Amino acid sequence: MNKKKLKMTFMICLLAAGAFSANVSGDAGTAPAQFLKLGAGGKPAGMGEAYSAVCGDSSAVYWNPASLINGNSTSIVLMHTAYLSDLFYDWASLSFALGNFRIGTGVTYFSGGSVPTYDSFANSTGTISPYDMSAAVSLAYDFGGVGIGFTGKYISLNLGDTASTFTGDAGLFCTLPLNGGAKINAAVAVSNFTGSLKFTGTTETLPMIVRVGLGIIPMNGLTLAGDYNMPSDNAGYFAVGAEMGLPLDGSSKLYLRGGYNNRSTLGGLSFGGGVSIGELSIDYAYIPYSDAGNINRFSLGLDFGNTAKKKISGAVEQSPLGPPEGDFDAKKYNFTQKNAGSGSRAIKGCVLDRSWNKVSRARIRVYKGGKGVDSLTSTDDGAYTTGELKPGIYTLAFWHQLSGFTSAQVTVEETGSILLDVVVSSEQSWNIITGRVMSDSGFPGEENLLSSAIVNIYYAGKEEENLVTDEEGYFRSRELKFGEYEIRAWKKGYKVFSTRVVVVPGDPVKTNLQLSPVR
Length: 519
Known about the structure:
Elements: H1 3-19, H2 42-46, H3 60-63, E1 74-82, E2 88-98, E3 101-111, E4 115-118, E5 124-128, E6 131-142, E7 146-158, E8 162-177, E9 183-191, E10 196-199, E11 202-205, E12 209-219, E13 222-231, E14 237-247, E15 253-261, E16 269-277, E17 280-290, E18 293-304, E19 335-337, E20 347-353, E21 363-368, E22 371-377, E23 383-385, E24 392-400, E25 404-412, E26 418-424, E27 433-439, E28 454-459, E29 462-468, E30 474-476, E31 483-490, E32 497-503, E33 509-515
């Protein structure tokens, strides 16, 4: 365990608890711009709004700008919440990486519907449409597991009498890896720490909120979170939440969520769920007995990874091999025929199981030089055809949830397509990534091996492993499904090193990572 990062984790918690508690008052919701407290995203709403230490998508622009470093891909979040009558609240955000920086933007809009107006004699003078809005830009920097972030916001209120101002948010975030892939996150965020709104005859400050958060990921798929919130115009309150992710077919997942906070005396419970299908996620939260009645919140998320996706096409190519007998090794039954046609340079064929049945909806990934170049699915007849490929050596990985795995390596030449029929088997196991982290300075030898270095492994933009090297610089992942992975290694005093590898069934990946000292 990294003692310095452990110290940072507790310092973050103590910083907010001690330094900002004086800003809490007993005036419930007296500040203007209360829409700034309504949250962002269906996922955090389902977790009781305990989210400052576990957010990783672009909604971190709202919860904690420093937590943007949790993300590793371009993220979009769109949210809609309907309230009583014709009131509604919307959120849209975008985040993306720029080197070690993460950039985020977010827009909030609250509509007050249509409100009738009257003169001093109670005569109707028409209607107004009050609204509140804000636009934010965030910047976060990753110091190797410790992040710092800032947000600049423009706020505008139109209540018949208009007012606008600028304000800012700031945050800290730290993640501490534990044994077995578990980790603890700690965070503190301060929202709306400056700015005031000038109405006719009065000036009022914005509702500042301090959040102190702790997130625990004890195992893959389970997240536990807790926040203590200190608004400047209300009493402090706790929020706790949990999320469980359950794998479905392929890269899809089902999420179940629950949470509680004691901000309201009417209830405080929240429930939610969601489903992710590849890059798309749909989330829902139900908040009963809130101050605004029963609330239904929906959000849509998009996380753009690095694997290119192309249109599926192809025709059936029947393999000439017979069903295997005796001891079975799927790779022995992968059949390759070069120049199987004079068309474009493509790889095509049929996916079969060990009983020689055609396998539909098998997932197929095509890699060249460790980088994904195509992603497709077999048809109802088990057929597949890749897009046109450049000459070179390619690795193809085949996977079906029920039938199993296999992989093959193919050389694409200047002319002609390639026929590749494969047999997938459940006896094919997932594989690991292992290796050593070392410094690229000095003479080769044991003195260059780096212990206590952090190795993060990402799949499709989401963190799969958070490892720490042993005394001899070794690291070893758990078993991973096939696909393209990004490996990031870092240690204090060294630059972050990043590389990409491909995990295929039957072939463990061994890679050494060399870090350069910061000069």
